[in-house]
Amino acid sequence: MHEMLKKVHFIVDGRRVKCCFSSTMNLMAMQQTVLRMRSKGFLAMAMTGALALVFSACTNGPGVYVPINDSRMPNASVASPQLSKARSGDNVSSGEAFAKPAKERPGLATTWGKTVKQAVGDLRFTRASSGPVGVDAIFYNNHEGLEAMGAKDMSVNAMQTAAGGIIEWGIKGSIGMLPAYKSWTPGGYRRFAQGSHGAGYSIVVKNVCKCRVQVVLSVDGLDVLDGKPASVSRPGYVIEPGKTLEIKGFRTSYEAVAAFQFSSVSQSYANLRHGDTRNVGVIGLAAYTEKGADPWTWMPSEVQQRSTANPFATAR
Length: 316
What we know:
Elements: H1 2-11, H2 17-34, H3 40-59, H4 81-88, H5 94-97, E1 109-117, E2 134-141, H6 143-148, E3 154-156, E4 160-162, E5 167-173, E6 176-177, E7 180-185, E8 188-194, E9 200-207, E10 213-219, E11 222-223, E12 237-239, E13 244-247, E14 249-251, E15 256-263, H7 269-274, E16 282-289, H8 300-307
Parallel strand pairs: 2-8
Antiparallel strand pairs: 1-15, 2-16, 3-7, 4-5, 5-6, 5-9, 7-8, 9-13, 9-15, 10-11, 10-12, 10-16, 14-15
């Protein structure tokens, strides 16, 4: 009997230990009754039934997540950090269970916030070329982190142009655009935004040209449409001429997103889902123009130049 219980114990994974412990206790109580039975046949039948109860309780208990299909949006949903961990089914080794906790990295990252309604819109778009017309990035951190990074050389307007001037974009907080800065680095000027732990934010992109554009966006190195490692070649949101799009979170379905929320690095979506925090603290954008359209026709600069043309320019 002891050996049989020992085998049952080692079959159980960490998520069902409580369930099996309870069932094992019930089995031991039944054993006392069974031992009073002198019939070997009855003993074998009783033990078989008891073991069946143990395995039934341990495999069919409540709280088991059903994995969802997290393939490429817009065909399916993004997996939440909890579903991703439940899906892996990996057992924790004794070394991991008693290992010294990793030191928390300072500064901000982005976590999986509350569900917000936001329709995905029409993603159909034929790109003019295989590569983007422009790529840009905004690095973010709290006040202390930006000071440490030397990121406050100059305050700037939160909405800045990118991709040759066809778009403007920036980071919006709960009560307006976040404080924005530019700072010189060995690789050139970088943009920075200042956030605070626990606060929500969104990415605001305005199409200032006369044709549709497509933008591929990433947060902490993850694509905002499916939560997988980002690439400029992925599909993106389409913005109509002159319109502004506000992206509020990681997409979870056609109709909703999980809001962007500033968090610690350990509680970031990148860490909870992928266990990788290498790229936390940066928001990326890649812009594409549409096949057959010239986005630079009648740009604001051209309109401005014509509006200020001098009919009596001095001859040279």
